[in-house]
Amino acid sequence: MRLQKFMAEAGVASRRASEQMIINGRVVVNGIVAQLGMSVDENMDVVELDGKQLKLQNRKIVILLYKPRGVVCTSSDPEGRRTVQEYVKDIPERMYNVGRLDLNSEGLILMTNDGELANRMMHPRYGVKKTYRVICDGKLGAGSIAQLTNGVNLEDGMTAPARVFDIYPTKDGGNTAFSITIHEGKNRQVRRMLEAVGHKTLRLKREQYGPLSIGELKSGQWRYLTDDEIQKLMGDVH
Questions:
Q1: Domain-by-domain residue ranges, the chain?
Q2: Spatial distance between the Cα atoms of 97 and 208, rounded to a whole number of angstroms
Q3: DSSP states of 194-235 as a string?
Q4: Are the folds of 3-53 and 129-209 the same?
Q5: What class, spelled out in words, does domain 3-53 have in CATH?
Q6: pTM given for the model
Q7: How confident is the model at residue 198 (pLDDT cuts 50, 70, 90)?
């Protein structure tokens, strides 16, 4: 964001008054005297006014984490397993994970310091779409694909229609790789849907959540969402 906007949101002064402070040489970014018109990354850059570091007031933080397999989506674990919180321990704010991926699943999970935003993103009324890359055992036939697409009757109710696409056999030819997009958040939903049509899930990776994609992140890596990404995400739950 523009430096003067950052200063205004940090409670320093109006944008116009902040611009004058920049012109007067009172503002330093990462140890260098700031210039009018420059932009800063609110999560990465250090901004100082008259030698005092500025911080945004009540800033909303949302990060995108590639959760590895074997990591649990809780703040602590009595069995001593790694948790998603360990990956964000250097962030001073309290971070909440948005929904969960089970122990043996991997991929995109969001974390935020805004509990209200987290609850809205998880609320079933908004139907935020989630896309997974899956490998299941055996050949996923046309009948099973039709069932997954039209809805599967689970013990907690019928699932909504899903999109199943990009289907092909694995290299050894014995199993099936495919992508599936759902709009619900039932516990272990994709795994249970596959069980209901006679298949075991061998690998499950979440690749997309709403407008967000895991992109080039590797297992265990994370990044901050940009302001534009946060706005798009909030647009999905309003």
A1: 3-53, 62-125+212-236, 129-209
A2: 16
A3: HHHTT--EEEEEEEEETTEE-TTPPTT-EEEPPHHHHHHHHH
A4: no
A5: alpha beta
A6: 0.75
A7: very high
Catalytic residue among 45, 50, 90, 102: 102
Q: Is residue 57 very low, low, confident or very high in pLDDT (cuts 50, 70, 90)?
A: low
* Class of CATH domain 129-209: alpha beta
Q: What is the pLDDT of residues 96-107, one digit of tens each?
A: 888 889 999 999
Please say whether the beta carbons of 170 and 176 come within 8 A.
Answer: yes
Distance of CA 35 to the CA centre of its chain: 34
> Domain 62-125+212-236, what architecture?
2-Layer Sandwich (3.30)
Please report where in the chains the tokens 């199993």 appear, as a residue.
175
Rounded CA gap, 229 and 235, in Å?
A: 10
AA identity, residue 165: F
| Amino acid identity for residue 104 in this structure | N
- As a 3-state breakdown, the chain gives helix, strand, coil percent values, each rounded to 5, of 25, 30, 45
Residue 90 annotated in active site? no
